[in-house]
Amino acid sequence: MAAYRFVDEWFVPASPQWVYGILSCPREYPEWWVDAFLAGEGDPGRRSPGSAPGS
Fold first, then answer.
1. What's the sign of the alpha-carbon dihedral 14, 15, 16, 21?
2. How far is 16 from 36, CA to CA, in rounded Å?
3. Are 49 and 20 in contact (CB under 8 A)?
4. What global pTM score does this model have?
5. d(CA 44, CA 50)
6. How many helices (H) and strands (E) does the chain have?
7. Residues 24 and 17: beta-carbon distance below 8 Å
8. Which one, of 32, 29, 30, 27, lies nearest residue 44 by Cα?
9. What's the rounded Cα separation, in Å, for the pair 29 and 27?
């Protein structure tokens, strides 16, 4: 079997804090990434860095 390695790098012209704020709300993904998400699941609100799900 041939080895496969997927490497993907994105340049996002935004601060890490802004990107984290967007990605920490999975329920909102369908609002801005319509082609990839029909529905979003997760706890309401933003996650704190280093916090575990359900905490």
1. negative
2. 22
3. yes
4. 0.50
5. 17
6. 2, 0
7. no
8. 27
9. 6
Q: DSSP code of 8?
A: -
Query: CA torsion angle for 15, 18, 20, 26 (degrees, to 10)?
Result: -150
Name, in order, each residue with C-beta under 8 angstroms of 11's C-beta and a sequence gap of 6 or more.
none
Q: What is the pLDDT of residues 2-46, one digit of tens each?
A: 898 888 888 889 998 888 888 888 888 888 888 887 777 666 666
**Using CB atoms within 10 A of its CB, is residue 25 exposed (0-12), middle (13-18) or buried (19+)?**
middle
